[in-house]
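Key result, reporting period 2: structure in, sequence out.
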């Protein structure tokens, strides 16, 4: 019972401490993620996320089929050269075609590009491997 009283006392102390602001201090700003979004913005973000996943997946699958059917042409090259070429080509394709899909590719950060290129390489390897077996 003493523990419950102690916990309740701590919570009250924390509320009082956060409620009391020192004069001259600015209130803490909320992070941009904490800002509330409207239903339309949430829906658009969800659709954009789906497009950012499906489009690179389709590109990776198409690249897997292309590598399978062009095996004679790419066989003299090592696999890592083929993969780096694939990364470059799909990066350029995505950079210039996201505008047609109403996605702002200019706002992509490094993390976003790693995500979409990982999807391309992953689906390329999976598709190519399945076709080779």
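The corresponding designed sequence is given below.
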């Amino acid at each position: 019972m003493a523990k419950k009283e102690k916990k309740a006392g701590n919570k009250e102390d924390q509320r009082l401490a956060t409620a009391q602001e020192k004069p001259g201090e600015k209130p803490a700003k909320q992070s941009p993620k904490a800002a509330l979004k409207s239903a339309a913005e949430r829906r658009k973000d969800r659709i954009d996320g789906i497009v950012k996943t499906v489009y690179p997946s389709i590109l990776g699958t198409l690249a897997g089929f292309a590598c399978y059917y062009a095996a004679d042409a790419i066989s003299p090259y090592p696999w890592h050269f083929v993969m780096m070429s694939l990364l470059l080509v799909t990066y350029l394709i995505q950079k210039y075609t996201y505008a047609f899909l109403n996605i702002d590719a200019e706002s992509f950060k490094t993390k976003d590009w790693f995500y979409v290129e990982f999807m391309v390489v992953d689906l390329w390897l999976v598709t190519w491997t399945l076709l080779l077996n």
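The chain is about 70% helix and 0% strand. The mean pLDDT is 82. This case is discussed further under Risks and Mitigation.
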